[in-house]
Amino acid sequence: MIAWNRKDLVALEDLTPAEINHILDTAAAFKQVGTRDIKKVPSLRGQTLVNFFVEASTRTRTSFELAAVRLSADVVNISVSTSSLTKGETLKDTALNLQALHSDIIVLRHSSAGAAKFLAERLEASVINAGDGSHEHPTQALLDTFTIREKLGRVAGLHVAIIGDILFSRVARSNIHALLKLGARVTLVGPSTLVPREFERMGVAVTHRIDDVLEEVDVVNLLRIQHERQRQEYFPSLGEYTALFGLTKERAARLKPNALIMHPGPINRGVEIDSDIADSGRSVILDQVTNGLAVRMAVLYLCAGARGK
Amino acid sequence: MITTLLRNGRVIDPANQRDEIADVLLVDGRIADPATAHGKKFEEIDCTGLVVAPGLIDIHVHFREPGQSAKETIGSGAKAAAAGGFTSVVCMPNTSPAIDSASVVGWVKDKARAEACVNVFPTGAITKGIAGEELAPIGAMFKAGIVALTDDGRCVQNHELMRRALEYARMFDLPIMDHCQDYNLVGKGVMHEGPTSAALGLEGWPSVGEEIIVQRNAQLAELTGTPVHCQHLSAAGSVRILRRVRARGIPITGEVCPHHIALTDESVRAFDTNYKMNPPLRTAHDVDALLEGIADGTVTILASDHAPHCAFEKEVEFDMAPFGILGLETELGLFLDILIHKKKVIDLPRLIELYTLNPARLLKLDRGTLSVGAPADVTLINPGLEWTVDKETSFSRSRNTPFHGWELKGRAVRTIVAGKTVWAV
Q1: If you ran DSSP here, which 8-state letter would residue B129 be given?
Q2: Could you tell me the CATH number of the domain that includes residue A175?
Q3: What average pLDDT does the structure give for chain B?
Q4: Which of the four pLDDT bands, split at 50, 70 and 90, describes residue A3?
Q5: Whole-angstrom distance, CA of residue B132 vs CA of residue B146
Q6: Contact B317 A199 (CB under 8 A)
Q7: Nearest-CA residue of chain A relative to B320?
Q8: Distance from CA of B183 to the nearest CA of A (A)
Q9: What is the domain range of residue A126?
Q10: Which of A111, A223, B293, B355 is the most buried (most CB within 10 A)?
Q11: Which of B399, B403, B378, B402 lies closest to B82, judged by CA?
């Protein structure tokens, strides 16, 4: 048994391969729990989890909430519209107030890179990063990796293509760290404006031609084209994006027979992925959602446990 | 009559090409001929082993008054300057309200006269409210006593307006100091654009956002003949441009701040906002280019960009924190440590020239020299003294420095303004 000593989960860049595998193994055990009649375990009974979302999210917040409920924790949801941050209170003060109310775990979604680290360094509570700006989204990458391991039996030696808006994607960065640490190869695919060559320094390949990689990869992970983040002309139109980078039926047909099609959601049907392909048997998009619950239970369980040590 | 004899120091006065062991006599606030000391009563300071330099000038500081006295006051900033070895500072006009009228210039000068232990020279804004839209009352501010024009903190984006500002400034022989930043290219950038920003997911501030304005300034300086001084250069390309256009005789100069040669963008990895400044920390390649620029004379002025901010303002998310760090009390130590001791980029007389003669020339100040008759502003430097930076002992009202705990070699040990010691170690 590998010791887990982290009260926080801030960034996958900080974790060792053994720690990542430990989370995935723990998640596998919790996934079993989800198939029982009684899905609830008492691990976090009496603990309070605050879902502190300074940026809009439905699925991640719900997934954390459900994970906490399954672990018997009490859950409070704070979203940006109800939070004091809109009144000019700093993140530090809001967090200190939450601590004064004896919150045990704070799940933070924030628009600034480094926000989760900022809180983790200042609070005794566990801080779980549910997405910090364009930096990291650790539990998303863990559930992606969990799904790959579950479906293909391994991660090491696989070739994964991450396709889309990499520059502004925390999902991409966390996936790059997780996949490389577990021995996979990673190729980033997208427009040159959103996938600059600088990423090669992280140890990945970069290409601007999706057709070059389709036949070689074991997994395609399609990122959502984030309309709300397109501050300028990174590409001319969604139509041109789809023509150059969309996973159309024709392109999907060129994938290896057992290649996985993944997407962190919410999907833009007809933009980054053909609608029928999204619904096809090769897509594991909904398995990812199911696995997200198990992965988040594992993360909450491990970090809460480390706090007591 | 106050008379002081600085005995037996290494007198370095680049304006007179002096570098010799000698005495310096200060009489009634002016430099005097030591031969006239005979028979007079004087206070004597033994300067054996010390460098006796003209009082250092920092042409780029933010003293935050009027309007932001929680960060710094003219009085506290002046004390920090004295403790860093500076006898004169040039303060930037991005205050609240901005220094964009004769009355605010007058207010700053009055406040400095009342509270500052060093000489404080105000600059005036190029444009009203530093908004980059209409010219500020340059003639009136000149009469009120500004030494240069700058919109520092911001950059005039409209090239036509910048051209007219330069043409207009020429009537008063006022140089323009420019913070070189193209807003469209830089966008919301908070750190150097490169592999580190890509890895961290922080928005990039690309080097070209500085370089393109340095080039713009060179073209406009050539067209108008008005000197342009490019502030806090950070990028290799800026040095390259400056070197090329200076060789053609265009009246343009550049300055380098210590953090841009002491640190790189890698420091941002911990998301510590004391490593957030504008322009941002760049790469080792840029550091080398800045050092080369200092070595070959492309860069002619050193300065701090002393930018105090309250702890609570800096203790926020990285992309929300204000840009800037303290500089006055660490800059000389950092430059001595890096330029003289560690990397041997230039020699001591040259370093002193970059802090005295060159800024005085640019701003036409009657200072920066030990010539007989000049104001008795003198800095005594112990170039070999080893010391540790301790932010808690800073005279600034703020504590935002990334250099806390750094061990440096070399510092000022006494600061003399108009013949009076205003600080000693």
Answers
A1: G
A2: 3.40.50.1370
A3: 97
A4: confident
A5: 19
A6: no
A7: A112
A8: 13
A9: 12-136+292-308
A10: B355
A11: B378
| Segments of chain B assigned to CATH 3.20.20.140 | 55-363
Helices A138-152 and A170-181, packing angle to 10 deg? 50
Does residue A131 share a domain with residue A161?
no
Does a structural domain hold residue A27?
Answer: yes
Q: Is A202 on the interface with B (CB under 8 A)?
A: yes
Report, as residue numbers or ranges, the catalytic residues of B.
305
Residue carrying structure tokens 């997208």: A190
pLDDT digits (tens, 9 = 90+) for A147-178: 999 999 999 999 999 999 999 999 999 999 99
Judged by a CB distance cut-off of 8 A, whether residue B202 touches chain A is yes
Task: Sort out which chain A residues have CB atoms less than 8 A from B194's CB and list them.
Answer: 198
Taking contacts as CB-CB distances below 8 angstroms, the residues of chain A near B275 are: none
CATH number 3.20.20.370 given to B55-363: no
Q: Are residues A204 and A271 in the same domain?
A: yes
State the catalytic residues of A: 59-60, 87, 109, 137
Rounded Cα gap, residues B190 and B345, in angstroms? 30
Residue A91 Cα, gap to closest chain B Cα (Å): 7
Task: Quickly state the pLDDT bin for A90 (edges 50, 70, 90).
Answer: confident
Q: Are residues A169 and A201 in the same domain?
A: yes
CA distance B325 to B277: 7
In A134-225, at which residue ranges do the beta strands (DSSP E only) sit?
159-163, 185-189, 205-207, 219-222
Say yes or no: A199 and A235 in one domain.
yes
The gap between the terminal CA atoms of chain B, to the nearest Å, is 25
Beta-carbon contacts below 8 Å between A and B:
61
Would an 8 Å CB–CB cutoff place A232 in contact with chain B?
Answer: yes
**Mutate: best of B200, B275, B282, partner A, most A CBs <10 A:** B200
CATH 2.30.40.10 boundaries in chain B: 3-51+375-424
Token pair for B48: 């054996």
- Asked if B201 lies within 8 A of A201 by C-beta distance, the reply is no
B-proximal residues of A, 45-104, CB under 8 Å: 90-92
Residue A228 located in a structural domain? yes
Q: Which amino acid is at B190?
A: V
Inside any domain, residue A5: no
The domain B3-51+375-424 having CATH identifier 2.30.40.10: the answer here is yes
pLDDT in tens, B225-249: 999 999 999 999 999 999 999 999 9
What is the tally of structural domains in chain A?
Answer: 2
Structure tokens at B127: 């444009």
Three-state DSSP class for residue B352:
helix
User: Is B206 within 8 Å of chain A by CB?
Assistant: no
